[in-house]
Amino acid sequence: WPAMLKQCFSEGKALFASNHTIYKTGGTFSNIAAGVLTDANLKDAIAKHLAIRLENGKRVKQPRTEGYTLFVAPEGELNARTILNNGSKFAATGSNASAENVFMFEGSRVKLEIIDGLGDPDADGVAIGAATNWFLVNMPVLRQMKALKCIRLYSPIIKTYINNETDQSVVDVRTGFTCDHYGAEYCIVGYTS
Questions:
Q1: DSSP secondary structure of 127-167
Q2: Which end of the chain is more exposed for a tag (fewer CB within 10 A), N or C?
Q3: What whole-number distance in Å separates Cα of residue 50 and Cα of residue 48?
Q4: Radius of gyration of the chain from Cα atoms?
Q5: Edge-to-edge strand order for the sheet containing 188-191?
Q6: Which tens digit of pLDDT belongs to each residue from 81-105?
Q7: Which long-range contacts (CB under 8 A, 24 or more apart) does 20-29 make?
Q8: What does pTM read for this prediction?
């Protein structure tokens, strides 16, 4: 087990790759969606989820009850709703079924979520992803694996200064953290180009 863990984490692959390794069988899998969000590409993403295998060769448990979560940028929301709501196929029942944002798509439950910052510029003016990016996520397994990690590099350093001329306090807080994925590739299929 430790050797397999070391091998897996030292692979050094990006979260989205066309050749993630299945160590038990020697095969690979891709978690890259075929293109921009269309009916056919969403079907392909679900098929990719069904084909993904863990390092030990076993299938990833699929979200039969909760369903997949489809993340899109605000610009992609209308297109996503058009694809998912073909024929008003809400997965929920009752008078508030549409409010739950869960759809039946080709026999799979899919919940729609909007990522507000996707495609927007960061503080340096560089775009965060693209408005055409979309991600189909197996949230129950992602949560169970605790695959997305935020790691604190050092504890916050807090210094308080008093400006003697104005009697104002200045608080300087510095900290360091990083984020990484540990096995999230088994739970996410996405289009990032």
A1: BSS-TT-EEEE-HHHHHHHT-EEEEEEEEEEEEEEEETTTT
A2: N
A3: 5
A4: 21
A5: 102-105, 108-114, 68-72, 134-137, 188-191
A6: 999 987 656 655 555 555 567 888 8
A7: 20/185, 21/55, 22/53, 22/54, 22/55, 22/57, 23/55, 23/56, 24/53, 24/55, 24/56, 24/57, 25/53, 25/57, 27/53, 29/53
A8: 0.77
